[in-house]
Amino acid sequence: DKVTTWLNNILVPSEIVEVNQSSENDKDTVWPDNSLLTSDIFEMDQSSRNVILSKEILDTMSFEYISGNVSDENINTTVMNVTTVTTTDHINLNDTTLQSVHSTPAKRSILGSDPEYKEETQIVNGGRKRGKINKRKEKQLERNRIKSEWSFTIDNACNHTKEEKKYNVCNKFDLLEEDIMSIRKLLSIIDLKVDQDKFILTMMVIQSPKRTDRRKKDRKERNTIIYYMPKKSGERIRVCVSAFSNITSFTKRRLTILANKFKEGNPSPKEIRGGARVNAQSQEVTESIMKFIQKFKNKKSHYARNDTGRSYLHPELSVKKMWEYWRNKRSNNGKSISSFGKFYNIFVNNLNLSFGHPKQDVCSFCTELNTKIKVEADEELKTTMKNNLIIHKENSKVFSRMLSTVEPGCINVCFDMIQNQPIPKLSVTDTFYSRQVWLYNLTFVVTSAENQSVESCYLYTWLETDSGRGPNEVCSAIFDFLERLENRLKNMTEPPTTLNLYSAQNKNQFVIALLLYYINCTETVFTKINHIFPVRGHSYMPPDQVFGRIEKCLRKKENIISPTEYYNVFKNFAQVYIVNRDFYIYDFKTLLKNIIKPNQFKTTEQKVFSYSKGSKTLGISQTYDGTPIQISILKRNVNLTVLNNKEKLPKLNHVKPLKQKDVQNLMRFFNVPDDAKEFYHDIFQPNELSTNENEETNEEGN
């Protein structure tokens, strides 16, 4: 009602007629790319969607007006600037015609303007139901299959006898049993009817009758068919239709139809049995649906290591919403529509598409810059911001390329802290309102390996009852991993001399000093270590893939009471190292504080830290390919060898009293298993941390 009233007040009838006629002149008009906006489909109620205007242009502008993308004072100007687009190709967003469609900022189009969705939609045989078994088709194949073993004698092939051989054209007695069995064997391995027909046509000669003087004028023209059976020697033996039919198990009717089709100019038989009846109108609707779906851009999933063939549309879309929009467009143009069932079947059986999930943990810089670009009026400043955004995204791709490239003499290792896991994990409602004990995980992946096998993944884990999540725990895990990696590489004839470490976190002075100590004060095969960091907000790395597979298994577990249950899942994807059993936590923090200078540079601005054997300075670079600047981070008259005297830290409970109370409340919902009794006993041990230590402990997620 709002749209109709507005149109009556703003547009005079002559203007509406003129616009309608311009649209009517082009029967193949395709609505502009900006007409299929997010706001068009998702922000309208059903009554607004059913508003039927005369033609596409007014319909497009009505969608914009309803969604609020075009203000009242600018709507008249906007309608007058509309230009129809008459191409069936994907819309080019750089076209000046489309840039003038809106005089006010509009939301990005799902069809093509979202840079995340840039892949073309392709037709796929079988659609996305690839694993589904078609029992009806299997039965059809079984009926088509010709058996190689069957009871048959040459005498029963037809009524012709050996004595009448010179008076007829059937020379079946010249065929040997092995010749017939050879033909049957060839037919038995052909499952498809079409392929069987093609094979049989090679043994038939189809021609017009030679004698035509007795043919009636209104009689249909007949065919003369000559049948041959091949021998193993290559000779062709002519037989009658009865013998040919009995040997091949092809009925006479099937042979006649096959010959007639071949004579009509269809040399390659096609399967026309079954399926829905096809007519011109139904075919036009099907093609319209296919073209409509193909207009949507999609993207591949970056979580899978191999290309599954599946592509993903915008998460706010659905098959129902796509069908409604297609139906409204067709109805407004006076064209026939289809049911939702037909639209859904075409979507599933012809396209390997699904719908993505809303983005999470996206880059704050990209989001902030995109927001400013939308509202910026100064074109020069807007261009500068767009260029900065492009440079930012290109820099993020450089990190991914470096991570996937393994240079000779180098080994690439990626590590990151994965999500904390709660214990106990229960399905009761009280769990949502209660604090649980954390299980921490630091995962290392040797990306130089051909695949992410268990041997190339190292997972270090400890409980909140064992220790916290600070520099001591991280440095201890890194140091233990480097020693294990060292032992693994020493067995190689030509071990790599450069270690490239990739991580999204741990850009702090303690890790810097630890790596400087490791390369200078230990017997290592490495002469250089590069610690490389991604662009903030674009830090998807191999450890995230490992955690994705772990999380997929954990989601299937309703309750997890014991840490051992987590360890058993972890072992399927990585080598698991448990604190105080496989590695120990040392007091690196106290020693390193005494030998490190206060920060001489901003660590957040650096992309690469370089460590060289024999050099006690740190190389820093703000770009991935820049020359490192050497900086001294050690105090005067100190020696890194003080870390040789590092002390092992005792087991220390970090669970706070309030969390202890919540866990005690949850324990009434389960029985503690034998392998977890020590863990639950440790939870309620006195928390001996001082107030200052509690403040320094990283309690993210609590």
From TrEMBL:
It comes from the Eukaryota. Transmembrane segments: none annotated. Pfam families: DUF7869. Residues 456-616 form the DUF7869 domain. This is DUF7869 domain-containing protein. It comes from Aphis craccivora.
